[in-house]
């Protein structure tokens, strides 16, 4: 079952409880404090482009990458309304390519948890480092083991709205730290009946230490780990964490070729 297919059309409706504005303000504050007030910024897993648009409003030249054509279609509708010059790319963030470097990379709403193999997440981090300007920032959030295991694991969440309904069943595999979401959507049709659509989403939980090790191996420096979108130090008891990492020097002494998996090396050669 494809993830973010029919769900894309109602995604913003069902995600209206997420304070994207607050998240974006936090990201902008972190960027500005590091001297990044404008220039190219990449959002990985941009989805319907809500945060991408807000960052464009703040004056950044935005690039959005997502592997769902349906989600990007929603994002491009927003772009048509706003008039922002945002470049959207239909790419898998596990193997994305750009034509040059960017000042910062951001990723919100647990997009990184969709990378379920540690070596693939390490590869994503290496690519991010590869495409960051010297001293560029990488800001992203991730759900924690605690959230999957203790908060939403093996729970069913249901919601009934005028624009549709959903049943979201969670099951957590503690051995592999995988959370499987079985999503059933019930969307209204023109004839007054409802059509059932099903999707499966799989996310993986990573420990702080594991993420820190991957960031370091990718050639970046971990600046901070916070309880999501706050300035409170984060730990394994938080439900969501915000990580801030920094590109800290691609030099002969710290040759980033050695930090990028073989399949990515063609990008900068």
Automatic annotation (TrEMBL):
InterPro entries named in the record: Methyltransf_25, SAM-dependent_MTases_sf
Location of the Methyltransferase domain: 41-136
Domain of life: Bacteria
GO BP terms, alphabetized: methylation
A molecular-function term among this protein's GO annotations: methyltransferase activity
Matches recorded under Pfam families: Methyltransf_25
Name this polypeptide is given: Class I SAM-dependent methyltransferase
